[in-house]
Amino acid sequence: xxxxxxxxxxxxxxxxxxxxxxxxxxxxxxxxxxxxxxxxALENGFTxxxxxxxxxxxxxxxxxxxxxVLDRERTLENLYLKPLQKIIEENEGYxxxxxxxxxYLMIDFxxxxxxxxxxxxxxxxKYRHFISAVKKGIEETGKPVKIFLSGSASGGFYEVxxxxxxxxxxxxxxxxxxxxxxxxxxxxxxxxxxxxFLSWDGKGAAEEKEVARLRTFVKEAHAEGKKVRLWAAxxxxxxxxxxxxxxxxxxxxxxxxxxxxHLVERGSP
Length: 269
Known about the structure:
This protein is α/β, with parallel strands linked by helices. The protein has one domain: TIM Barrel, CATH 3.20.20. The chain has 8 helices and 12 strands.
């Protein structure tokens, strides 16, 4: 019954996305915790979603914390890849009809990265037709979905991964990665904790020296063609506005409808 219900949700979402305004700055933090993972984000126009995964018995499960008893339907494939495939088929090659920029799927490894990545490569091979790969540094065009990997469980693994000739996924970089000559095709986003740059909680004015530090970081990332994302920022309209004003590209939020309203009101995209 759950899978049948999910199937009808996919059909419903793909049919109504023609009326949705895609929002290039909207990133659904811990997207899988919403009532309808992926679907709620899509219906609000989000163009970037985040899924935490654990590898268990060669299957990638989507959880923030691994439970004692697994829901066997709660897999990366069931919640994200199969629905995206169906939607892209319904929309003739797009996630949002006519939207030619990437839809980003950020996969955050919560278990050891090397074995999780090995299994992920096998899985992504089944969906190769809609995933933009990088072949010897050259990014494919005409594919609607860009996948990039994050997670503290990498243990230096990503440096090895990026040496592969064909990459079905890029990497979520850190400020320390700027200046290393890594192309935006393999490291499309540079992310960091909000508090690394700002102590501002949304009240009063931010400190000028902190704003200057943020702007320098954004300028350096943009010079390399990379997007900027800050996690753990206060999830407030005044903070969203401040970050956008200062060049942050992807706004993390748990408040999908709130950020959508804010972005539409300010004229995004």
